[in-house]
Design brief:
It is built from six helices and 13 strands. The protein is of the alpha/beta class. The strands form three sheets. Strands 2-1-3-6-12-13 form a six-stranded mixed beta sheet. The longest helix has 18 residues. The structure holds ribulose-5-phosphate.
Length: about 220
Amino acid sequence: MDQNELKKAVAAAAAEYVKERLHEGMVLGVGTGSTANAFIECLAPFKDQIRATVASSEETHRRLRALGLEVLDLNSVNEVAIYVDGADEANEQLHLIKGGGGALTREKIIAAVAREFVCIADQSKYVQVLGRFPLPVEVIPMARSHVARQIVRLGGDPVYREGFVTDNGNHILDIHGLEIRDAVSLEAQLNQMTGLVTNGLFAARPADLLILGTSEGIRNYKA
Ligand code: 5RP
């Protein structure tokens, strides 16, 4: 199977996982990216049984609406039962790097609210040490250079994602050259930087379940 087929396989496995846990009034959180898009397509056969969703980006919002699903403002929701999203990297502790698609802030907010966070990824995303994929951070535009200088002091090499504006009107710096041995403490350290909105490390709130697509089949990893 190629990478695309593996993404479709994990998307189907996650849809099955959700279907088995559907309950009345359940709100489903849906992430952003090509794997999440494949997951949205897999919801079609049982969309009428899904009460409502919350979306981690404008693009996902549009796709869910196109399928006929209700998309709620997170502020009007008491509980998100399951949140399904992809990742750029995942390790065995289910710490993730996310934000390749630039939706990290809304993704992190939904992950924080969700009772269960299910990450879906193909085997290329599973790593021993996080950091080969450049770590995205969302910054307030006027703070971009200030944050970049602080990141250099930490030993990272920040690259401005030119021409990209997030759904929140902010900019993205992609940090190259990091070997992340302690994701929890780096996540906290980055959060202290004034002007930095969100960093793409999902370690303080890791995934609860990783559904990984491999050439040998689907593997489930639990935290
Ligand atoms: C978007 C994300 C995505 O989940 C991540 O980039 C993975 O994308 P894909 O499923 O296309 O490989 O964090 O902000």
